[in-house]
Write a structure and sequence with these properties.
By secondary structure, the chain is of the alpha+beta class. The protein folds into two domains: 61 residues; 109 residues, no CATH class. A five-stranded mixed beta barrel has the order 3-4-5-7-6. The longest helix is centred in the first third of the chain and has 35 residues. It is elongated.
Length: 183
């Protein structure tokens, strides 16, 4: 199949690529080959971009994560400073975490308790506690490990952060439970 190409004289009297009055037969397959070559080059660049992106994602996934750690000590709540743990060798390590974790760490009812927290060190004297949904904080009381929970005795609702009950708005009570009870 052949396509006739028509040349047009523009208003400024310059000619297009073909002289006026002459026509050139161009095979449709040749036109398609040119389009295919352009598309092929674009696909190669897109594949290269996809390869680079997947390489970056793989590097991010394989990046070294800080090693998990557990600290234990007396919970300190000092005015104007973040909550901290004083370890058995009298080092003070400040604690940080997500908002619900900070709520537990700042709960005045837990001040002075023997606290155990799971997470990782961000500096030699700073510890980031794992998120609240992982149940990363425990209290040692009377030789037993207890999970920190909060209980509304009106609605019988248990939460893991202090504050008002989401149902009746009554302040929740601190309820330390055995880990096997808290399933």
């Amino acid at each position: 199949m052949y396509i006739m190409s028509i040349s047009i004289v523009r208003a400024d009297r310059k000619r297009s690529c073909y002289p006026v009055g002459r026509s050139r037969r161009v095979r449709k397959s040749a036109l398609l080959r040119g389009v295919a070559l352009q598309a092929s080059a674009k696909m190669k660049s897109m594949r290269l971009c996809a390869l680079l992106l997947s390489g970056c994602l793989a590097a991010a996934c394989l990046a070294q994560t800080p090693p998990p750690a557990t600290i234990r000590g007396t919970l300190l709540q000092r005015p104007g400073k973040p909550p901290a743990v004083e370890t058995a060798d009298h080092h003070i390590i400040s604690l940080d975490g997500d908002e619900p974790t900070k709520g537990v760490l700042n709960d005045k009812r837990l001040a002075g308790f023997d606290l155990e927290a799971k997470g990782h060190f961000t500096a030699s004297d700073q510890f980031l506690v794992d998120p609240i949904h992982t149940k990363a904080m425990f209290v040692h009381k009377d030789g037993h490990v207890k999970v920190i929970t909060y209980w509304c005795d009106v609605c019988s609702i248990r939460t893991y952060t202090p504050g008002p009950c989401w149902c009746c708005q009554k302040e929740t009570l601190l309820d330390l439970r055995d880990p096997d009870q808290d399933q």
